[in-house]
Hydroxysteroid dehydrogenase-like protein 2 (Mionectes macconnelli), 419 residues
Amino acid sequence: SLPSTYPFTFRKLAGCTLFITGASRGIGKAIALKAAKDGANIVIAAKTAEPHPTLPGTIYTAAEEIEAAGGKALPCVVNVREEEQIISAVEKAVKTFGGIDILVNNASAISLTGTLETATKKVNLMMDVNVRGTYLTSKACLPHLRKSKNPHILNLSPPMNLNPMWFKNHCAYTISKYGMSMCVLGMAEEFRGEVAVNALWPKTAIHTAAMDMLGGAGIEKQCRKTDILADAAYCILTKPKSFTGNFIIDEVLLREEGVKDFDVYAIAPGHPLIPDFFLDVEIDTTAMKQKGYALKEEKTESAPAKPSGPVAETFRVIQGAMTEENVRSTQGIFQFELSGDGGGTWYIDLKNKGGSTGFGKPPGTADVVMSMSSADFVKMFTGKLKPTMAFMSGRLRIKGNMALAMKLEKLLTQLNSKL
């Protein structure tokens, strides 16, 4: 229940066998390393056997780290979309370590796209990995978990918040993550008294390779380290099996356990953190459903964002700040559908000639369409509101090329000094 640097007096997971999906990197590996310090056995059930061109780590490099930390490792090539690979790894785990005490369903796929923009293969991937993979891995492990003295299943999935804002921008992804949570709801009741089944979710964004991909360079300053989830998971997995059916938020649990200093988990202590998906953030989310939301926000501003002025002035300054290098490096047309004062359709053309901005439809087909309030638009282009924060809190809707949308965030960093 204390930060991962703290020398635990009791090695509570010594000799326990953990089967962790997606444990070759990120959150899965952090949970594995935490347990390894107690002398646990770790089954690394993940896809990456050969080095990935852009992602760090393989099941074998993770195994080396786990053994260096004091645990025993069994690397297994497992794509959770393939039931035969799951069953084979479970059998190998039982043969090697004599059983399975803990299952961590960590493997997950993500695509933050709207219904019409989500390719069928992406829908299949998210449903297969997140829902079906979690269900089938649980099913394969349960006969062995039932033989353990203190068995646990832990799914990395959120509390089921039915606020429509969590569905409208990425319906397929939300369905798939809530499917993992429904496994917790059902299996906790089905195996009550035999196996503990719980869900764990971070309060803030966690710095992983996936977050780098979604948020681009610099996003890590707004994130916490994977250590916070490893410490929270350790707390859950060392509780008795009567602790079941819970949807746990990492920070909430750790505060209850006595942790006071959360700066140790920050990538950049003191820097504002992005709240994670599916958790209603401190802003008034009920007001966000109302048509007057943009006006409400403007009234509560202590002073106008200087030197932003109205939307038209912001676009004028953007035009003046553009360079040929911006156009050459971005190669995208951005359309903005703005509500509130100064709203309507606007565009930024960073594809043609020296670039241009204006009111109305863009000169070519938009690669990215962004919908938001005019108040938030001005904040976003003057550095008062991070695009990632706006997107994750439902204040910004993005359609089209997500990679180009991320490029725009990098460009904003360069432009902010001129806006």
